[in-house]
């Protein structure tokens, strides 16, 4: 399960994975961001906040994640990973090969700094 909140005034989507990612999580996130992107052309940023990366429920969940990235990455300016997870710490260097967005890691206590960076 993933909790997702759109900060409309800032054009920032905050995602908090709470358990292994499921196919329906990406459908739910798309239903939140797609109308905003349709009316504004893009998201200023996505903030992923997680103690650790929960992985995927199954292979079809992984495929849904890749499809979501493929369909949205050109419409997102920045991505911030806020976590002390070793995986999410290295994720920006991996993601930079696959997404157009600028990707940056922040320590778990730096939520406000990540929001400020996404707004800038």
From TrEMBL:
Name of the protein this chain belongs to = SpoIIAA-like protein
Q: Which Gene3D superfamilies match?
A: SpoIIaa-like domains
SUPFAM superfamilies to which the protein is assigned, alphabetical: SpoIIaa-like
InterPro entries, per the entry: SpoIIAA-like (IPR021866), SpoIIAA-like_sf (IPR038396), STAS_dom_sf (IPR036513)
Q: Which organism is it from?
A: Bythopirellula polymerisocia
